[in-house]
Amino acid sequence: MDIARAAINKPVNTWLLILILFLGGIWGMMTIGRLEDPAFTIKQAIVVTQYPGATATEVEQEVTENLESAIQQLPQLKRIMSKSLPGRSEITVEINDTYDGSEMPQVWDELRRKVSDNQRLLPSGAGPSVVNDDFGDVFGMFYAVTAPGYSDNEIRDIARFLRRELLLVDGVAKVETRGLPDEVIYVEVPNDRLINTGMPLGSVIDSIQNENTVTTAGSSRIGDMHINIRNDSGFDSVSNIESLRIGQPGSTDQISLVDIANVSRESREIPQEIIRFNGQRAFTLAVAGVADVNIVEVGQAVSAELASLGSEIPLGVQMEPIYAQHEVVDAAINDFMISLAMSVGIVIAVLCLFMGWRVGIVVGLTLLLTVAGTVFLMRIANIEMERISLGALIIAMGMLVDNAIVIAEGMLINMQMGMKAHKAASRAASRTQWPLLGATVIGIMAFSGIGLSPDTTGEFLFSLFAVIGMSLMLSWLLAVTVTPLFGEYLLKVKGAGDQNDPYKGVIYAAYRQVLKFSLVHRWLALVTLLVVTVTSFWAFGFVKQSFFPDSNTPMFFVDYQLPQGADIRATARDIAEIDQMVLEMDGVESVASFIGQGASRFMLTYEPQQPNTGYGQLIVATTDRFLIDELALEVRQKLSAAYPNADVQTRRLVFGPGAGAKIEARFMGPDAKELRRLAEQATAIMAEKDFLMDLRQDWQQRELVIVPNFNEERARLAGINRNDLAQTLDFATQGVTAGSYREGDESIPIIIRPPASERLRVEGLDERLIWSTSEQRYVPVEQVVNSFSTRAEETLIKRRNRHRTLAVQADPVPGRTPAEVLALIRQDIEAIPLPAGYDFEWGGEYEASGEAQASLGSQLPLSFLVMFCISVLIFGKVRQPLIIWLVVPMSICGVVAGLLLTQMPFSFTALLGFLSLSGMLMKNAIVLVDEIDAQLEEGRESTDAVIYASVSRIRPVFLAAATTILGMIPLLGDAFFASMAVTIMGGLAFASILTLIAVPVLYALLFRIRTASDYKV
């Protein structure tokens, strides 16, 4: 099939293809979705169960263990992790990677059924369990709102107004408000009124709960109608609560609640969450766009809406972006377009320089059309423009241009030999179209292991495989259709046919001599190549290893953790001081602080911290990303000195999955004390290393608790049980929640407590009065409690796959990679003797990268098999494919040299570059071997054929390498793609020489071509 001839003979069809791709590219560029990172499904859900009053150990044994047993029956389960805390169980359920996003709703429904069926096995007072599976929503437009001088009610009204208006913006899916003052209704009951009226505390609580409970009142048939009986229940105002009538025990008398209590509606005294922005109290507006939307357009619409609302909100209210994903995406796409334009410009400039402006224009137009067509296909396939898909276009650039260069160079040579443009195009395309197609498919298959990997990393990088596949296939199609047509229009050769040998010149002559020497001394050449390759594999051990690189977003986190159980007000006090300290540092643009839990998920790779009163997080925005390491070090040093009792960590945002501690040593076993002993040994080893920082244990310290020693005999005589004691102490300290007041879609807790002057400290607990049912009066607590004692107990118990697991965590200092420091401590940590029944494993980046590589490795055999079969099908023989595959391992030489010289790590993106390099190398080798075979078929002497074919490939190989290497220069400044760019640049620089020396030498060896030392070409 002569595709090129058909394209030239029927130019209307070819121009129709050009028009479709060009206009489709414009349409695609205007309408394609834009995101920061590719969407991937967070296959996790959290099951939260409250068990008020229980210790962490009781929660673990009575709640967590039961629920884990039920959840473990899920066939889709990959991993189950849990945290047992006083009064609360948190179980994280992770689903197997083989299930995609469309299957997750069904999986979560099954999880809910398992959890629901298990509720009957939970102890009294525990539950109901709540399954949260939507915490993976990304709120990319994240704003802080400050309203100094306004009351809490006014702030809540402002938040409701902003949320309501933003939900009306096209493309907005969700709006989340956080950090608002919690509203509660306090029922404050002085002790003397309870005593004077003889009103049991339990009666007050029960009356409020019973009055405010929604219950069914039945139904009745009236004629042909079935009418429900509605029982109005619940309070409709604070005054309605005050007028509640409560019966006195042993009497028919009733009193109003207002006679013994003061009822007020106000903000919660001890907040559950506090947010500040630049030192001022704030709340956050987190906006999420609908799926497959152009986030840039949605973000601009949200910004415009907020600007228009400025005149409708009170004076002094300020809205500042903490993170504006639409601006980040817009800047990233603009940078890409600049990089793409630079790359295309470099390609055209290099081609014009070495092959003339006509060839440069032909190949450049083909390249631009390929990019436009790829954007068109991306839009049709609903692949958004994001970091990975845009990077895929640049990764593929070298292979995209290679196809067109081979055809254009072949046309040029044929025309120099006297052929007309029409025939030259036909001959150049027909001789190489099928080898180029096979090489293109092989190049695509090199990425299939990543794109088809079933894990999160594979899902994250799927667009890379898809875009590379689309662009490369399109580049082949255009190379054999559009390039010949443009070549016929533009290519002109002066003195065509005047010379029989188009390969004259100094460079060609020098290469002939080098190749002649290599063929004559083929064994020496082969041994030299082997030595260089083996040395490079050895030197690869000195290359730094990493998973995903740190983000180039000018922002970093400061995580602050007080001992477990710390009062949130103490945490807030410290964070307020830290806010001011950080804001005064040079290079800091803004500081958003979150106390009590993490922020909303404003990036896909950000993992919010679950509620914890001792936790605070600062999101620090800097003026320049290059200041992050310096500022983070300064913050860490100052905070470690000023707050020695706190764990302080600083960390950067990361690209891709795998956030969290970079180094994690996990000990698993049944006994908490033994786990802590093992963890202390590991901590001591790590503490000696100056290349580690942020050393901590994930169980935190034991918490001090007060335990009343209950006298059951005396309590029985007084008619008092443990629940009565717990309720009395709860009332005396923080207050008892006695239901909720419903107002619209809000539920406001009703809390019964004594006035502030009577809320007791620890020292006065034994003086508290408790109602005795047998004596029908209040008696001192000390009558039923022998004493109050203190003890330290575990208040955070973590489990992994149903085993207690304590992790020692750390991060490498700037300039060191996790793989590097792990290698330095691994032997010492693994030498810690483990008692029977205890296990150890590495987590952190080692585990994440290992899982990703294992998933990739499971796909690679099939990918390589397909690639090998294609190479065999191209030639219909075995020795030619063998030559091609023998060359591939040698490509590591330039990669190692490039990474060592630049001190870049071999990251996951560098692996992508290596796969791209392998595809380009195999394409060059396939075309060269095919050309040797073609020369032999035309009757050339074997040695002559090898030399002539090799010489004919100098220019296309050199130009493809030069254009690709120079086209990678714009990526050197990109944190995500820098190591990939170095890998391709260094690898290609060596691979170009490799192809032109190793392939002819191996061909001569395998086909036993004898070469006289004095032959002439």
From TrEMBL:
Keyword terms: Membrane, Transmembrane, Transmembrane helix
Parts of the chain that traverse the membrane: 12-30, 336-354, 361-382, 388-413, 434-454, 460-486, 523-543, 856-875, 882-902, 908-929, 957-978, 984-1006
Organism domain of life: Bacteria
Cellular component aspect of the GO annotation: plasma membrane
Molecular-function GO term, any one: xenobiotic transmembrane transporter activity
Pfam families: ACR_tran
SUPFAM superfamilies recorded: Multidrug efflux transporter AcrB pore domain, PN1, PN2, PC1 and PC2 subdomains, Multidrug efflux transporter AcrB TolC docking domain, DN and DC subdomains, Multidrug efflux transporter AcrB transmembrane domain
InterPro entries: AcrB_DN_DC_subdom, Acrflvin-R
Keyword Transmembrane: yes
Protein name: Multidrug transporter AcrB
